[in-house]
C-alpha cells in the first residue's frame, strides 16, 4: 500500500521560500517502507515500448565513439569517426564517448562534490529552491514541475548555469573550484563534438558553433539524485522525455538507471567508468531538420542503491532563434519541418508543459 505521507509542504517559510520535502529526506524517514501515492507512476501495459533489454542483449549495439580519433587521428581515422558520429546521431540519437579530454580524476571529484551538495542540511539547499533556472542562476528542486506534475518523480535535482557566466552554490567547500574546471573541460569537449557533427551533416566545421552563437551559448550542469526507493516498480525517476539544447554529456556514479528508447525498446545503459554518455537533444534535431534525432530517455529507480547522474547541457545562446539549417533544405524534397523559436522561449514551453516523450518538440513541428 502506498504511503499517505505529504510529498511537499505548501506554506511559506520566514525567508519567503516555499520548502518541500525532498525525496532524499523522504527516503531517510524512520520506518519508511512504501511511497506516497502521489509518486505512483503507471505506464501503459500494452505499450510495446515497455520491452526492456540490457545493452549487451541488443543486436544493434550502442555506438561507441573514440574522441581521440576525432581530434588527433589521421585523415582516414577522422573521416571514419565523423561518419560514425553522424550514423549514431541519425540512428540512435545517442552514443558512448571514450578517450576524451576530461580526466577520470576530475570526473570522480565532480561526482563527489555533487554528492556533498545533496548531503548538505536541507536549509542550506532550500536557499536555491522556488526559483527558475532561466531567471536565476541556480535552482534546487524535486520532481520536474511540482505544481503541474500529475505524478511526482523520484528525484531531487540542482541545475546551475555555468556559461556564458559561471555560477556556483556557496556550499559545499570546494564545489566552486571543481565545477569551474569541470565546466571548462566539458564545454570545450561539447564544442569539439559539434564541429564533428557539423561536418557529418556536410556543413562547414564551425557552422553549428557560429549559428547557435556558442560564444555566448548556454551551458548548464544538471545533477539528479535518485535515492533508494522501497517500491521501484511503482515509481519513476524521470519519465520518457527528450532534452532541450544541442547535446547532453552525462556521467553516472556507478549505479545504472538510464534507459534510452531505440527501435521500440527501452535499452538499459550500463554505467561505464570514465566515459560520457552523449545524448542528442531537441535543438540539434531541429537544426538538422530531423535528420538527427533527439533521443527519448528515462530514469528508472532502484531499491538497493542511490543513483546520481550529472548532465552537462550544451545549448545555443538563450536569444538564438533555432531553426532548420537553410543549407540542408530543399523546398520540394526537404522543406523545413520545424518552425523557428528562440531558445529561451523553447525552455519556457518545456517548463509549462507536461514532460513526456517529445511533447515539447512536437509543438514546433510543421
Automatic annotation (TrEMBL):
GO CC, alphabetical: cytoplasm; nucleus
Localization per record: Cytoplasm; Nucleus
Main location per the UniProt record: cytoplasm
GO molecular function list: 2-oxoglutarate-dependent dioxygenase activity; flavonol synthase activity; L-ascorbic acid binding; metal ion binding
Domain Fe2OG dioxygenase: 216-316
Entry's EC annotation: 1.14.20.6
Name of the protein in its database record: Flavonol synthase/flavanone 3-hydroxylase
Amino acid at each position: 500500500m502506498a504511503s499517505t505521507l505529504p510529498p511537499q509542504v505548501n506554506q511559506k517559510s520566514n525567508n519567503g521560500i516555499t520548502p518541500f520535502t525532498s525525496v532524499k529526506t523522504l527516503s531517510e524517514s524512520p520506518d519508511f517502507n512504501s511511497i506516497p501515492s502521489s509518486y505512483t507512476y503507471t505506464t501503459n501495459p500494452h505499450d510495446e515500448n515497455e520491452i526492456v533489454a540490457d545493452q549487451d542483449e541488443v543486436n544493434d549495439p550502442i555506438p561507441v565513439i573514440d574522441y581521440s580519433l576525432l581530434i588527433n587521428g589521421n585523415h582516414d581515422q577522422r573521416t571514419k569517426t565523423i561518419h560514425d558520429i553522424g550514423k549514431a546521431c541519425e540512428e540512435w540519437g545517442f552514443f558512448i564517448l571514450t578517450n576524451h579530454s576530461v580526466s577520470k580524476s576530475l570526473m570522480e571529484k565532480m561526482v563527489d562534490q555533487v554528492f556533498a551538495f545533496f548531503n548538505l542540511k536541507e536549509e542550506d539547499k532550500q536557499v536555491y529552491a522556488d526559483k527558475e533556472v532561466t531567471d536565476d542562476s541556480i535552482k534546487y528542486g524535486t520532481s520536474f514541475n511540482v505544481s503541474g506534475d500529475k505524478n511526482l518523480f523520484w528525484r531531487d535535482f540542482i541545475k546551475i548555469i555555468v556559461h556564458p557566466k559561471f555560477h556556483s552554490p556557496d556550499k559545499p567547500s570546494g564545489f566552486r573550484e571543481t565545477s569551474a574546471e569541470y565546466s571548462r573541460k566539458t564545454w570545450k569537449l561539447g564544442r569539439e563534438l559539434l564541429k564533428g557533427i557539423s561536418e557529418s551533416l556536410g556543413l562547414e566545421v564551425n557552422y553549428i558553433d557560429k549559428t547557435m552563437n556558442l560564444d555566448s551559448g548556454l551551458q548548464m550542469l544538471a545533477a539528479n539524485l535518485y535515492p533508494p526507493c522501497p517500491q521501484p516498480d511503482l515509481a519513476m525517476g524521470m519519465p520518457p522525455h527528450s532534452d532541450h539544447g544541442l547535446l547532453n554529456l552525462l556521467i553516472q556514479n556507478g549505479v545504472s538507471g538510464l534507459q534510452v528508447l531505440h527501435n521500440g525498446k527501452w535499452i538499459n545503459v550500463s554505467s561505464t567508468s570514465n566515459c560520457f554518455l552523449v545524448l542528442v537533444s531537441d535543438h540539434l534535431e531541429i537544426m538538422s531538420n530531423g535528420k538527427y534525432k533527439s533521443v527519448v530517455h528515462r530514469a528508472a529507480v532502484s531499491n538497493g542503491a542511490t543513483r546520481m547522474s550529472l548532465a552537462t547541457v550544451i545549448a545555443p545562446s538563450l536569444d538564438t532563434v533555432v531553426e532548420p539549417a537553410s543549407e540542408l533544405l530543399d523546398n520540394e524534397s526537404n522543406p523545413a519541418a520545424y518552425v523557428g523559436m528562440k531558445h529561451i522561449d523553447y525552455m519556457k514551453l518545456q517548463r509549462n508543459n507536461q514532460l513526456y516523450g517529445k511533447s515539447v518538440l512536437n509543438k514546433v513541428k510543421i
